[in-house]
């Protein structure tokens, strides 16, 4: 039994992660505070520091937050790129940077990317690019993590539970059930892998 901080617990991916981790003690957080125990904005360094200080020492952090703007490359503004980078890349990187003081020896961070990093589609260049960036970050940062702390990324295809939202922009993709993605989060938290990207595709 581990104590796990799950950021983004109320979202579709957070619920998928929860399905594989519910036998642990889960501490939940999101930005609105609706349906979660703690409030945090992962794009705000001070907010992240306050969260970890309030939660205290834990065994693992699972993050499923990574807000993305969608549009064609020609239309995407600097602000849209910045918003996506601040959440899906810098926000997740800061969870590891700031949170590593609060995770027990041998504990883990599990981050989120998405299948578009390897299967690009129109209008999703910022999601795809930042997903690839966080995967590269995880592969590299493990060489510098103290106390055997582990870092992995789950890279799922679209969830069955999210098909109504994303299906139209993803013709030819096969959705997977959240419980299957939950098992990838479970492997990352309960296993010994580090610096890995666990792809869950159909
Ligand atoms: N859904 C899919 O099929 C799928 C597939 C592959 C990859 N992904 C990736 O998974 C990630 C999450 O997607 P999702 O579908 O789960 O989104 P979602 O359903 O909109 O959930 C987002 C979650 O993050 C919280 N949140 C939003 N901004 C936050 C912030 N700045 N700080 C802290 N919490 C914040 C939300 O809670 P509040 O708004 O209440 O604060 C909510 O709990 C995205 O990066 C997405 O690309 C999703």
Short summary of the structure?
By secondary structure, the protein is an alpha/beta fold.
Please provide a written account of the structure:
The protein has a single domain, classed as NAD(P)-binding Rossmann-like Domain (Rossmann fold, 3-Layer(aba) Sandwich), CATH 3.40.50.720. The mean pLDDT is 98. It is globular and about 45 Å long. Strands 3-2-1-4-5-6-7 form a 7-stranded parallel sheet, sandwiched between helices. The chain has 202 residues and is α/β, with parallel strands linked by helices. The protein binds NADP nicotinamide-adenine-dinucleotide phosphate (NAP). NADP nicotinamide-adenine-dinucleotide phosphate binds next to helix 1 and helix 3. The site of NADP nicotinamide-adenine-dinucleotide phosphate (NAP) has 30 residues, from helix 1 and helix 3. Belongs to the short-chain dehydrogenases/reductases (SDR) family. Pfam families: adh_short_C2. Its EC number is 1.-.-.-.
């Amino acid at each position: 039994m581990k104590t796990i901080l799950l950021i983004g617990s109320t979202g579709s991916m957070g619920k998928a992660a929860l399905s594989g981790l519910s036998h642990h003690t889960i501490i939940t957080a999101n930005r609105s505070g609706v349906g979660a125990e703690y409030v945090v904005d992962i794009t705000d360094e001070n907010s992240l520091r306050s969260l970890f200080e309030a939660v205290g020492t834990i065994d693992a952090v699972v993050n499923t937050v990574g807000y993305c703007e969608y549009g064609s490359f020609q239309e995407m503004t600097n602000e849209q790129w910045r918003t996506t980078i601040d959440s899906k890349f810098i926000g997740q990187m800061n969870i590891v940077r700031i949170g590593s003081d609060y995770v027990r020896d041998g504990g883990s961070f599990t981050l989120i990317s998405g299948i578009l990093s390897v299967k690009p589609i129109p209008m999703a260049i910022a999601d795809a690019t930042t997903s690839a960036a966080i995967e590269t970050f995880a592969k590299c940062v493990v060489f510098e993590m103290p106390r055997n702390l582990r870092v992995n990324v789950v890279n799922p295809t679209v969830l069955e539970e999210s098909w109504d939202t994303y299906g139209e922009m993803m013709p030819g993709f096969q959705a997977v059930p959240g419980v299957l993605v939950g098992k990838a989060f479970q492997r990352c938290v309960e296993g010994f892998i580090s610096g890995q990207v666990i792809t869950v595709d159909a």
